[in-house]
């Protein structure tokens, strides 16, 4: 299994200390997180995209470029790029530039996002989000693979023989499809024969399992081999390890309660009664290293995911480092042995991802 440390650049007062970062401090914190992730052997670092408080993640390509300058090996992921509201020309230019500046370490995860507040900012209605996403992605693919693109659609002005610059550094920038709530995302991924990244955050396992099964079914429909499906998964948004499960629950509870209190949108409401219910029946990773390993293996047996994303956002600075170190030392090595795969590797070397296309059947 491969591992991503990711951040939505959440900037709220710490649930234990009440301490707050300034905007500048939070950005520096994310840069240091990414450097630490590379040092600890994580395979990738991801930055999400949100366009309203309490998140400071409105410009992922800028932040990832700063991370690229401070790292040399780690893959750089967008978790996710909210393509449903963005101009594909701008996306093509920004991320091709980042691809060059990172030496070809970029991977795009596209999605509609999980915060409806961005739609009025960019002139899109909630009802248009899926049609907008599909149209914009079709154009983005053409802009990266073709020159002198002529195009006309609904969500931006027409193009006449346009060649975006720069051209991508990688022969093909790998694209994943963020999957959280709808078969429309898994349908789009299957149509293009590309990987999915299940959010695996709020809902029960059965919901994400159904989406992953739909993805595999539709891969076969479009002529791809579902046995070669490449799948990533989140981890309930948080990881917290301690010597015992009881200790981890005690230390993490204030964070869980604070986070749960911020979820106001109907689609964000947790189906779990409390932290203990989430730990036993949901995706959150809180416990001893042994119990967390067991849970990750259990979820893998259902999802078949080769990649796992974890986050330490919201914790104190010392806890962020402690949790990342503990995970890399006690959890990751076991899972790498138990679930080996060649994603992001070839002959032992880190290379441009092999995840950009599911093998055709």
Automatic annotation (TrEMBL):
Signal peptide: none annotated. Coiled coil: none annotated. Keywords: Monooxygenase, Oxidoreductase. It comes from the Bacteria. This is LLM class flavin-dependent oxidoreductase. The keyword Lipid biosynthesis does not apply. The keyword Oxidoreductase applies. Residues 13-303 form the Luciferase-like domain. Pfam families: Bac_luciferase. Transmembrane segments: none annotated. The lineage of its organism: Bacteria, Bacillati, Bacillota, Bacilli, Bacillales.
